[in-house]
Write a structure and sequence with these properties.
161 residues, alpha+beta, six-stranded antiparallel barrel, two-stranded antiparallel sheet, disordered C terminus
Length: 161
């Protein structure tokens, strides 16, 4: 019986430790950073991070993570393109204090904002797919300067799709 109790305690410690480190890896940082987004399309020349797309939409971030971010935009369309389609690749240029950072991301989820944020449009959760090494370095360094987002107060964080 003692061995079973020790084994259960060991498994529980392992589980709790794994959850704690997982939370740290997926930390969210509160930030309102201006950005421009467009649908990356090889026909328009916007297929690579840093390429200048034909038409874009301005917005701001709500919170950021190392591999994803939540974007607030006034519309979910750019011309005839819906930026929320999961098969779309989005070209995003963040205007960090240290300079612009370009990346390619894919939409994971979206919802129309309501309550206090109703007039701002839509919240779009995206996963970062591509970013140059220098841009990623600057992006991660900027994350380290931000306060962590409080998930209990902000129920609109990026969830698994």
């Amino acid at each position: 019986m003692e061995g079973l109790r020790n084994k259960a305690a060991s498994l529980l410690r392992e589980y709790v430790t794994e959850r704690r480190s997982s939370r740290r890896r997926n930390a969210r940082y509160a930030a309102r950073i201006p950005f421009n987004v467009s649908v990356a399309d090889s026909k328009r020349g916007g297929g690579a991070a840093g390429a200048k797309p034909a038409t874009s939409l301005a917005g701001r971030t709500r919170d950021l993570g190392e591999g994803d971010m939540n974007l607030v935009v006034p519309s979910i369309r750019i011309g005839g393109d819906y930026i929320t389609l999961k098969e779309n690749r989005l070209s995003i240029t963040l205007e960090l204090p240290s300079g612009a950072v370009s990346l390619i991301a894919t939409p994971a989820r979206f919802e129309q904002l309501d309550g206090e944020s109703a007039g701002e449009g839509y919240l779009i959760g995206v996963r970062i797919e591509e970013m140059s090494a220098p841009d990623r370095e600057r992006y991660v360094a900027h994350l380290r300067t931000l306060p962590q987002a409080d998930r209990r107060r902000d129920s609109l964080h990026l969830r698994e799709a």
